[in-house]
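Side project, low priority. Logging it here so it doesn't get lost.
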Amino acid sequence: MFRDSVVAGQFYPGNREDLLAMLEEMTISPEPPTPAFGIIAPHAGYVYSGTVAGEVYAGVEIPDRVILLNPNHTGFGVRAGMWEHGTWRTPLGDVKIDDDLGRRLKEKAPLLQHSPKSHQFEHSGEVQLPFIQYRNPNAKILPICLMGLHWEDIEVLARAIAEVVKEEDGKVLVIASTDMNHFDSDDVTRDKDRHAIERIKALDAKGLIETTRRKDVSMCGVYATAVMLFAARIYGVKDVTEVAYDTSATYSGDTSRVVGYYGAVVR
């Protein structure tokens, strides 16, 4: 099954040469990349969040297998929709779906369903692909689109992911694609995001969900992030390193209505 890019030319350059030039500019790190269990990276247009995402990707090794957890903005599909087989395309070429990883994960977490509709018009997973391709052209992906999960669902999926990563001796990267608070002022957004980031740094998945609800933090990928954090804790990860934080005000100049962008490495 094939998925063509739907936001190339909008969220990121639709031309291969222009895209490569932008990725090269954004993925510069003074330190060599190192292995990680997972990362948190934003998914807005590259002109807004690409610098934050690029700093994250520049600092980690991208293995040949990637689990891509992202939110469902469209409402299409199911609560836990997986793209099970085929390829996804960007201006940098085709990315194969890791159907073996998907099969094994689905056996451990039956809530996962094959759901192309969940991904068909969703940008939050696709925006991560050029970074993955740029850092490792051989990487396969397993895209999982999430919405409206209960805590029990998060536990089941997180445990399944942790088990699969252990079976692969850690040679899988788990990506949580998320933006932070949306459409408050810059000051309010930074304050709301601070509360959520405190829970992320503590590897507190349940606390993250509770905090976003209590503090009204409109973090679109909260379920994706919670799943990754809980899986990391089960796996034995103890450290979350903040890489970057910014808001869209830096690029738009508008401080009245912004979106927060956070990048972190979990290792």
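Brief comment: The radius of gyration is 17 Å.
Revisit when time allows.
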